[in-house]
Amino acid sequence: MSVSVFFSNKIIQIAVGSRGKNAKLERVYTTTAPEGSIINGIVMDSESLGAHIKDFWAANNLPKKDVYLIVNSNKIAGKSVVVPDMNSKKTLQFIMREFADMQREDEENTLSYIQIGSDKKTRQKHLYAELAPKEQLHEFISIFSGMGINLKGIISGESSIIGYARQKLVAQAKTFILQIVNGNLVSNVLFVDGTFRYYNSVRCFNEPGTPEYMDDLARSLNQLSQFMNAEKINSPMERIFLAGTTAKDISVYNQVVTDFGVNAPVELVNTGLSSDPELLNASQVVLYAVSGLYDQGAESNFLTNFSLKDDAENAMDPKTKARIVSVISTLIIMLVAFGIALTMRLIREARYNEARDYNNSPMVKMQTQEYDDATERRDAALAKYNSINTFVDTIESYPVCSDEIIGIIEETARGYASIEILSFNAEQGQVTFSAKADNVNDIYKYIDKLLEEEIFMKVDHTGYTYDSSTDLYDIHVNCTLAESVGRTE
User: Fold this and answer.
1) How far, in Å, CA of 83 to CA of 101, rounded?
2) What is the secondary structure of 92-145 as a DSSP string?
């Protein structure tokens, strides 16, 4: 039995089943991570996150072997590349050169990739490759090792969901969009003529289940439409596969999508998940975790090209030895405590019998019923209070493009490029500006600095252009702000 765990923001998804090219799903789980412990796939509080997962694992008796972590993180960079048909070692070297402009000298990284197409005539392979910092992978490994789990794989959420769509959805439609709703985030995967072409994630600002929320989902398709127009893609859209919602929303969403100019039927994802209707509904809500059960090959796993040798050499450092001494001391104390507890058992048993007789008395039962009635009234009032708080929290999650944010954008550019703020899209939390420099490498170094800023959920940019009149290189940058950024306490 294999376990696939998905990390991104608050909601942690878990899928249990048989892993392989034709996975078999057995059951799914969701749990909410401690507030602020993980944001955009970046662990902010490993102690509280690890403790929460450990308790949830034990409470649900989940397997500890064959565990894979699927993670969406803005520290993982991905791009489509075309490589000659060659062995894995040379392929990795080729991909590493493709990411040369995105790597810092003081940072160690590792690669993964999946195949998304091939050209037999030119003997070339089309890959979706990703680059991840080793420091981040070490943190994930440490969290699970504290639970007694040796992760068998760490896979990017993007490549996992792209691989699932290529295996299971291309047979139903060649040109389609897979739209995945995950709380306030919606991710879109575009396939054209059976080949992956584009992936994006957009924040939604309205309450799930409302007409305004449906508008948010449909509006997120605009970037895909713009991409298709820019690439001059004329293939008609055959279908929109939707995951993360309920079947009752499909008919409404069909009309909303049509109103936004997308003429394609919408249907709930139901391929390769489960024949059990109840499990089918639950599984499409946690599609990222379920996609991790579908094997995309060894090279899709960051750990395939990631060495733990240094960790093994330092396994018995002084801190580890101190922990071992602490464990032995704890065992001795527990043995002494056991002897004392055994002695106290008879005393507690007598007190228990006395308390049992008291609790079964008519007077106590009547008082208990009165307390239960009062508790029920209190819970109803609390539910209304929580609903109001949820509404307020949603409003406060909107990012604001404050002077401080603009100052960070300008300060980050100092020494690399001059910038001009062009626009701010409040609905999508997106700042658009132009960066100009007399050296194109300075622009990409500036983009790298932006990627390091935790206030941005995503940084997109167009290709650069050269202005002969000013002798400058120009690039347009779209920075999507993270939740609540720009708001003061």
Assistant:
1) 18
2) HHHHHHHTGGG--TT--EEEEEEEEEEETTTTEEEEEEEEEEHHHHHHHHHHHH
pLDDT at 377 over 90: no
Residue 266's CB is within 10 A of a number of other CB atoms, namely 23
* Angle of helix 211-219 versus helix 250-259 axis, rounded to 10: 50
Q: Rounded to the nearest 5°, which phi and psi values hold at 276?
A: -80, 115
Three-state DSSP class for 211?
helix
Contact 438, 472 (CB under 8 A): yes
Does residue 314 carry a pLDDT above 60?
no
Phi/psi of residue 402, each to 5°?
A: -85, 175
Q: Is 0.70 topped by the overall pTM?
A: no
Gap between the Cα atoms of 403 and 361, Å rounded: 67
Residue 362 φ then ψ, to 5°? -55, -40
* Exposure b/e, 187-207, CB count within 10 A at least 16 = b: bbbbbbebbbbbbbbbbbbbe
DSSP lists the bridge partners of residue 8 as none
Q: How far apart are CA 352 and CA 377, in angstroms?
A: 31
CB 435 within 8 A of CB 422: no
CA distance 144 to 12: 14
> 189 near 162, Cβ under 8 Å?
yes
Checking phi first, is residue 405 left (phi over 0); if not, alpha (psi -120 to 50) or beta? alpha
User: Each residue of 477-486: b (16+ CB within 10 Å) or e?
Assistant: bbbbbbbebb
The Cβ of residue 283 has, within 10 Å, a number of other Cβ atoms equal to 25
Residue 231 structure tokens: 């690439």
Chain centroid offset of residue 234 CA: 31
Burial, 304: exposed, middle or buried (Cβ in 10 Å; 0-12, 13-18, 19+)?
Answer: middle
Query: ∠ at Cα 126 (124, 129), nearest 5°?
Result: 130
Give the pLDDT confidence score for residue 361 in this predicted structure: 82
Q: 471 falls in which pLDDT band (50, 70, 90)? A: confident
Tokens for 377? 């009234």
Helix, strand, or coil (residue 246): coil
What separation in angstroms does the CA of 332 have from each of 318, 323, 329, 467? Answer: 22, 15, 5, 76
Query: What φ, ψ does residue 471 adopt, rounded to 5°?
Result: 60, 40
